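[Automated response] Your request has been received and processed.

Submitted sequence:
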Amino acid sequence: MKRIAQALAGLVLVAGALAVGDWWGRSHASATTSGRTVAPAATPKIIYWYDPMLPAEHHSGPGKSSMGMTLVPKYAEQPVAGERKPLYWYDPMKPDQHFDKPGKSPFMGMQLVPRYADAAGGAGVRIDASTRQNMALRTVEVKRGRLAEAIRVPGTVGWDLRNERIVSARVDAVVARLLVRTPYAKVAAGQPLVELIAPSWSSAQAEANALRDARSDAGASLRTAANDRLTVLGLPAGSHVRGGLVTLTAPIAGVVSEIGVREGQSAPAGALLFRIDSVATVWIDAAIPQSATANVSEGTPVEVTSDARPGQVWHGRVQSLLPQVDATSRTQPARIVVENPHGELAPGQFAQVVLQPSSGANVPLVPSEALIGSGTQQRVIVLSDDDRFHPVLVRTGRSSDGMTEILDGLHGGERVVASDQFLIDSEANLSGALERLEAGPRPAADTQRPATEPQP
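Generated structure:
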């Protein structure tokens, strides 16, 4: 019996030794791989202690909070291998404020956004292809060219006052008969207008007629004196004196825009009888905005259209930019001379005027929708060769037909963002978004814990 107990004890000792050896061998094999010893897992480092009810209050050691609750340790997070490590967190609306942990912004309650170390390679913002497609983001190449600026303004047709003629009585007379009775009647050059009883003209003309055939020296002298008297009395050329009546004729072809007398009325010397305006040329007064007056000068070519004649175009030139500004609309009238041989343009009509100033210098041109205005400055968003978007301050020139001159800031060949969605978002967040685009990321060593902690 004693021998059996000793045998069993020996077997137990052998089995135990084998088990210990197997355990040691496995531990040694797992701990030494390729000659390297794996250190035991390190205990996470405690950064500070805090009360879950008051996470903004940090304590240097364990204990009780001001509310009597047991403080909880805050451990340093150990990044997983291959995981991107944030340099800091920031509020997109206040990108200059950095935080050392996630949460909500104490300023506007927005969720903080991480800034990763691999995004710190350069200034600007990188947007992946799928996001660009979702945003309908569109870029265009900046090309150099001359801006063919067309200024479209309204205009009003008026008489060309350079061709206006006044028919008047230079002597006292009485209107015997009106041969043209209605205003705005068309007349031809030399057409009779009125018959007058004017004794001064009649006697002077009769004297000149009597001396017309005089051959003697005295007769020639008297004939000259009679003709001079007619000139002094102002008998218009082309007038006829017959039977005591003086017939006055139209000096030019045009429209009788005003009749100043009626039959039987006395017409004192100098009284207006008829006003005649030519329709061969007309004036168009166009209202030029102050911003465009610098590009308009004498001789600028003009195209004119009117709803009264759809599809028809008249051509003319600016005669002068009048030195007068409308106090209400802040526009300056430009006087345009347009040939109107068939009288199709009538004074008082509205017209659409297109002025075509000479092309400017050969400069970079961008779509006007690509510009982001901040009140005093203009910027564009440029796509650089490293696939990043960054803002560029530019100085703009003239704009026309959706294109704008860039006088400084671009050279041509760059690609700028021109889609409305991106620009609307950038302009809405101009004070923050553009600063975020411009600001180069700060190194991790420069990141300091802010005085204000993010909200949990």
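Summary generated for your ticket: The CA atoms of residues 244 and 253 lie 27 Å apart. The longest strand covers residues 389-400.
If you did not submit this request, please reply to this message.
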